Each structure stands twice: as structure tokens, then as C-alpha cells.
Amino acid sequence: MTKSNIKKYHKLIGYINLILSLLYLIFSRESELTERLFAVLAINVGYHMVYYFFAGIYKGTKRMRSHNDFNNSIGGIMIGMFAIFGFLASIFLTYIFVSEAITYNEYYRLFAICIPFGILLGAYSLWIDVRDEKTSF
Questions:
Q1: Sequence-distant (≥ 6) Cβ neighbours of residue 108 within 8 angstroms
Q2: Angle, alpha carbons 74-79-83 (nearest 5°)
Q3: pLDDT tens track for 57-85
Q4: Would you state the torsion angle of the CA atoms of residues 86, 92, 96, 98, taken in this order, to the nearest 10 degrees?
């Protein structure tokens, strides 16, 4: 998968996230309107925030890692480990969201299921950046 495919999937899942959030706003009667509005904002901002956080780590650390070989090698290892952490965190959060929704019969919690996909896409984008850096030498 390439960076352009990841951006395409990010956009697609972002639209799905927006639709799910609006459905939550319309159909959820678990809380008042203001609480639902804040939940919709938190779900949408959370999805994009975690994606751009993971996807932007590589560019944000590039100047620091270019100072010497030690920073480059150790920084590359740390960024790779952080990408792996993102993969694992997305799987763990998906499991937690689904299991708690089923266990407590609170299926409205599944409206936030796109947030782990934001983590997954951001971590995969970071992984591709690290992989491309290793192969460019």
C-alpha cells in the first residue's frame, strides 16, 4: 500500500466516521443534545487527530535525526517501535470498543469505532515512511 492509498482510505473512513457521528447525534437518546454534540465533535476530531499525530511524527523528527548517525539509527528504531505500538493499540482499542458494547448492551458506543482505524492508518503511514527511509540508503 502506498501513501496515496492511505490518504484515500483516511478520507473514506473520515466520511464514514462523519456519517456514524451524525447518526449518533440523531438517533441516540442516551444523553442530552449538548452532550451528543460534544461527543460528535470528540469522535471526529479524535479520528483526525490520532491519524495526523502518527503520520506527522516522521516529518517532525527528521531534522533532529539528521544531526548525526546515532540520532538517525536510534531515532529510526524508536519511530519504528512507535509505529508497531500504533498497530497494537488500534487492535486493542477495537477489541475494547466491541467487547464493551456487547457486554454492557450499549451498542451506541460502536459509533466511535472509526477512531482505532485512524490510529491504524496513521501508524501504517509512519511505518511506510520509516521503511522508505531504510531502503533509500
A1: 24, 28, 30, 101
A2: 150
A3: 999 998 888 888 888 889 889 999 999 99
A4: 90
